[in-house]
Specification:
The chain is mostly helical and 103 residues long. 80% of the residues lie in helices and 0% in strands. The longest helix is centred in the last third of the chain and has 31 residues.
Length: 103
């Protein structure tokens, strides 16, 4: 049963990475593309890490995996936000149909 859950996590990870890549090619501007890739990466790495956690034989390996996942979950969204903010500051405009929130 644990192997089945781990493999389901790996398949979900593959789908998350695939949908993120699809969004990279299909969305109209840099910001929506960055959002798709950032969300796909975060979910994909989380599911892959969960699958590896289920299959890991030792608690030290599990602890290292949890530490790596926490680091990735903190760094990836923050870096995506910083890159988008830098693009906005330097004048990269979203597509005309994209609605911007003020604030």
């Amino acid at each position: 049963m644990i192997k089945f859950l781990a493999y389901a996590c790996f398949i979900g990870s593959f789908l998350a990475f695939g949908f993120g890549t699809l969004g990279l090619f299909r969305f109209p501007d840099a910001y929506t593309r960055m959002h798709a890739v950032g969300m796909g990466d975060t979910l994909g790495v989380g599911l892959a890490g969960l699958g590896l956690l289920l299959l890991s034989p030792d608690w030290t390996v599990r602890l290292k995996l949890v530490f790596i996942l926490l680091l990735f979950w903190l760094i990836n969204p923050a870096m995506t936000h910083l890159v988008a903010k830098a693009g906005l500051i330097h004048g990269v405009r979203p597509a005309k149909d994209t609605k911007l929130r003020k604030g």
